[in-house]
Design brief:
30 strands, Ubiquitin-like (UB roll)
Length: about 750
């Protein structure tokens, strides 16, 4: 720390004179590499295979110079780290060495780049993907400063060799029958590129096919290829031949024998107790098994006397690993005896349990522009495998306190506290439901929470909520989520006269703060295309209803369906039906470019006991994942507009929503991607609420009431997440701005918005 005061002046001096010393540390006979020239490709046909090979070739040739712009091999910024290195790397002082190591970067030299080696690697890539005559060459381009140089690569693709025929040779009759039966699944077909990765994929496919049909000991390496590339120019005749000397155990089918599961608290634990349930033997320590045997059997797809199946083995391993109960899962298969006639494998599964307890603490500190500041804390506790069936109990307590720092006194300090409790079961808890094999482990979750908010001088509010939710996935493409009961109870314990006057003056605040009870039922379905699809789709539809079952109960008690003001727990309850759908379609336009279309529509209709929809159930548009030319809740409903601060933003929600987006995504260089987009949408009210003029939906006005925006953005791919920056520009406002024409934006500075977000918008 004693050097800090000296560092800034030194670094500033380096930046001022650094441009004169970029090559000062380049050894004699070497050069500073400053990037690539655009790679030139010759004699190629543009198709998906070429683009895939191009990506691998460029990865082999890519080298980032000093000061690379987002890791680009072509573009540089100011190489200030190199300047720092040049000035301090030879320093004999501790400060200088520390500066060079911390802030500097060694020069990227041509000797280190080694273009000759990289061209050799890139040429191997070409040949591995079917460009057998492909060549890669390079030239070193000297710069004005002879100590600096760029590299220009030339890739001559030449003719792509394709597969003419493929024969399977020397396979036993049973194996040959399997090959013929599943011929349509072959990874290599006539006309396909002669690609090494496809050859390996076909060998692996056969191995999986044989192992799924009992051949436990078969391995891909037991078969090898013979290729004739001379008979027909540009065509390859392939023979996949089984070796003559493979082990005898790989030539016949195997069946599952005894089945044992070891349940350990730590690895290599010696187990002393056993328990047998049907065909399963459990080994453990203690009075009773830590996991119920019946639940273990639900995870296992391999059972005694069954033929071995590789897919069933992998599914069993995935189910156990994804159940959240174990830190380690290992399968072992051993022959029952050593005789040549043995065809039975005993299966042993060793599972190491997760730690049974987990505690966590989360803290946050906020400092708001209105002068309120204070801490927030969450203290939680988890109990895993609570009832010996993989259940997880999660209990947490949370609290927050805010001080008013603008001199109004302690009477304006506020606080909030509450608790959340959830129990998650790794199965469907439904009476009379027969056992069913799901794609992954289904869950049943029960939650309950309470929260108290106290704002001295204004109000105190109690909120209680809870839900019972099922989640299951019958296939890799379809997901279901169903909550037969979701409740929210909101009660304003007290409110001051000052707060009452504010509520009556603000319709939004009055609607959100009133006492209400929302008993809701929700169902959601999601469909996702298989990962191998080039142009996939995503579709989700969610439907919910509230208050209808209660109203049926009141009807049985003599109340009319349309009567308003019926109560439950001293609160009026909401009654509505809501449906929302979200659809996304992606078209691949190149190796690293896509066109993505997105539509989101929703409708909520209140009736019966309450004519107005609860604010939390209404729709809105605008923001980073919607119409990006406008901030959140700054558009609609319909042609409604107000410049009154207390109404704007808060009042711009509706009962009906339409949102459409079109976005073109493309690679700029390296991990940096660009985007151009067009967004349109709005929300509307289904009823006239008496104070928002133009908010009600009318079909004839839909075109002119559609807000429209465009814009551009950049995305930086960090592999584990996407950082996104979007700049949206408005093209049309849905209300009368006083300017004629479709482009009715009065001032450009009021028609654009900047959004920094994580992940794609849709």
């Amino acid at each position: 720390m004693k050097y800090i005061s000296q560092i800034i002046p030194l670094l500033l001096a380096v930046l001022l004179v650094g441009s004169c010393s970029s090559t000062s540390s380049v050894p004699e006979g070497d050069q500073l590499y400053i990037g690539l020239k655009p790679i030139e490709y010759k004699e190629y046909e543009k198709n998906d295979h070429f683009y895939a090979v191009q990506e691998e070739v460029e990865a082999a040739l890519a080298t980032a110079p000093n000061g690379a712009f987002f890791g680009s091999s072509y573009h540089r910024t100011i190489p200030y780290k190199l300047w720092i290195w040049n000035n301090f790397s030879n320093s004999e002082t501790k400060l200088g060495k520390w500066i060079a190591k911390t802030f500097g970067s060694a020069p990227v030299l041509m000797s280190w780049v080694n273009p000759e080696l990289r061209t050799s690697v890139a040429q191997s890539v070409l040949r591995n993907h079917g460009y057998l005559g492909g060549t890669v060459s390079y030239m070193v381009e000297q710069q004005k400063n002879p100590k600096k140089a760029k590299i220009a690569y030339t890739v001559n693709m030449n003719e792509l060799s394709t597969v003419d025929t493929l024969e399977y040779v020397n396979f036993p009759s049973l194996s040959d029958s399997l090959i013929r039966l599943h011929a349509d699944e072959a990874r290599i077909k006539p006309g396909d590129p002669f690609d090494v990765s496809a050859l390996d994929a076909e060998r692996s496919r056969l191995s999986t096919l044989f192992r799924n049909n009992g051949f436990y000991y078969y391995q891909p390496s037991y078969a090898s290829y013979l290729a004739d590339t001379l008979a027909v120019p540009g065509k390859v005749h392939l023979r996949l031949q089984l070796a003559d000397n493979i082990p005898a155990a790989a030539n016949h089918k195997w069946y599952i024998g005894k089945m044992k599961v070891n349940i350990m608290k730590q690895s290599m634990e010696q187990l002393r107790d056993t328990f047998t349930y049907r065909r399963l033997t459990l080994a453990f320590n203690g009075r009773k098994p830590p996991i119920r045997a019946r639940l273990l059997l639900r995870h296992l797809r391999l059972l005694p006397k069954q033929q071995f199946s590789y897919d069933a083995y992998m599914e069993s391993a995935d189910r156990l690993s994804n159940s959240g109960q174990y830190s380690s899962v290992q399968f072992a298969f051993t022959p029952q005896d050593t005789t040549a006639l043995c065809d039975t494998l005993d299966m042993t599964v060793s599972c190491v349990l997760n730690k049974p307890y987990e505690a966590y603490v989360e803290t946050n500190y906020s400092n708001k522009i209105n002068g309120r500041t204070g801490p927030e804390i969450v203290v939680g506790f988890k109990k895993k495998n609570a009832f010996r069936g993989g259940e997880v109990i999660d209990l947490n307590l949370h609290g927050a306190y805010e001080w008013q720092t603008n001199g109004q006194g302690s009477d304006y300090n506020s606080y909030e506290y509450g608790t959340d409790l959830s129990v998650s079961f790794p199965r469907m808890i439904v009476p009379f439901l027969k056992p069913y094999r799901y794609y992954n482990t289904p869950t049943t979750t029960v939650r309950a929470s309470t929260n108290v908010v106290n704002r001295p001088g204004y109000f105190k509010m109690h909120t209680a909520s809870g839900d019972w939710t099922y989640k299951w996935q019958p296939t890799d493409r379809k997901k279901h989520e169903f909550s037969p009961l979701t409740i929210k109870y909101q009660h304003l314990t007290y409110a001051t006269h000052k707060f009452d006057s504010i509520m009556y003056a603000n319709p939004y605040l009055y609607a959100t703060m009133q006492d209400i009870f929302i008993p809701k039922m929700i169902y959601s379905f999601t469909y996702t295309s298989p990962k191998k699809y080039r142009n996939p789709i995503y579709w989700n539809i969610t439907a919910s209803e509230a208050g209808n079952i209660l109203s049926l109960g009141y009807m049985a008690a003599g109340k009319k369906w349309g009567d308003e003001g019926k109560e439950m727990f001293k609160n009026s309850y909401a009654q509505f039906f809501k449906i929302e759908s979200d659809f996304t379609k992606t078209w691949a336009t190149g190796l690293k470019s896509q066109l993505v279309g997105h539509i989101n529509v929703g409708l909520v209709y209140s009736y019966g006991n309450m004519k107005a929809t609860p604010y939390s159930e209404q729709f809105y548009v605008g923001g980073a994942n919607s119409i990006r030319a406008f901030p959140v809740r700054s558009v609609g409903p319909g042609s409604y507009y107000t410049d009154v601060a207390r109404l704007s933003y808060l009042d711009q929600t509706g009962d009906m929503k339409f949102l459409a987006n079109l976005e073109y995504r493309f690679n700029l260089f390296g991990n940096l991607y660009g985007a151009a987009f067009l967004d349109a949408g709005n929300v509307w009210g289904l009823k006239d609420d008496g104070y928002r003029s133009g908010a009600r939906f009318k079909l004839k006005n839909i075109a002119k009431e559609m807000a429209l925006g465009t814009g551009v953005g950049v995305r930086y791919d960090l592999e584990f997440l996407i950082l996104r920056l979007d700049w949206g520009v408005g093209l049309h406002m849905p209300y009368d701005t006083g300017k004629s024409g479709y482009y009715n934006i009065r001032r450009f500075k009021d028609s654009h918005s900047l959004h920094l977000a994580v992940g794609y918008p849709f």
